[in-house]
Amino acid sequence: MPINLSAVASLVKSLRQVADRYPVTRGMVTYAILWPSGNLLQQTLDKSRDWWDLREAARYGLYGSLITAPLLHHWLQLLTRLLPGASLSQAVAKGYIDQLVFAPFNISQFFVGMSLLEGHPMDEALEEWSRKFLSTWMISLSVWPLIQSLNFGLVPAKNRVMAMSLGSFLWMVFISYMQHTRADDLPEGLSQRRVHYDYHDGPTELFGHRPSA
């Protein structure tokens, strides 16, 4: 059946009008594509997997587009109002404020939200967050201030969530790895283990392992 070029052009025009009227949709569409793509790449690199889990990738697409993208859109709008301007110093300041204020919340909602979406109970979701959050945030602090400084300094406000999502593709591969790898199986330094003290038997690992004296 021949393609009706006028109908395609009309559809493209309508989509562009929607994107201009509702800028949040730009980031939502981009995250709906890049988040599952990053997850599928992580699955490909995971040698323990023999096939792609498409439902897992779909969960990433839904969560990224419906939860994370709108959160980022409104946060970036707020940050732009609080610190207007696009000078180098302002862009750098916004990049670091983003990582010191919003990133801890964003990383936390990702770990907890994705765990709940996979059907895990809240206590398991919080357990995973507690063991993976700090190391993930430290790595984020070493990467994202520069990316966000460039984003705030060079990219128009309406396109910042979309630009951020393009820059976050490899980051998505990393946090997908973090989210789907058991804390005990992570390399040293990527998992935080909490230790409490038993007054009768000495220090014990909270999750069952007792360190040698």
From TrEMBL:
<dbReference type="Pfam" id="PF04117">
    <property type="entry name" value="Mpv17_PMP22"/>
</dbReference>
<keyword id="KW-0812">Transmembrane</keyword>
<protein>
    <submittedName>
        <fullName>PXMP2/4 family protein 4</fullName>
    </submittedName>
</protein>
<comment type="similarity">
    <text>Belongs to the peroxisomal membrane protein PXMP2/4 family.</text>
</comment>
<dbReference type="GO" id="GO:0005739">
    <property type="term" value="C:mitochondrion"/>
</dbReference>
<dbReference type="GO" id="GO:0016020">
    <property type="term" value="C:membrane"/>
</dbReference>
<dbReference type="InterPro" id="IPR007248">
    <property type="entry name" value="Mpv17_PMP22"/>
</dbReference>
<keyword id="KW-0472">Membrane</keyword>
<keyword id="KW-1133">Transmembrane helix</keyword>
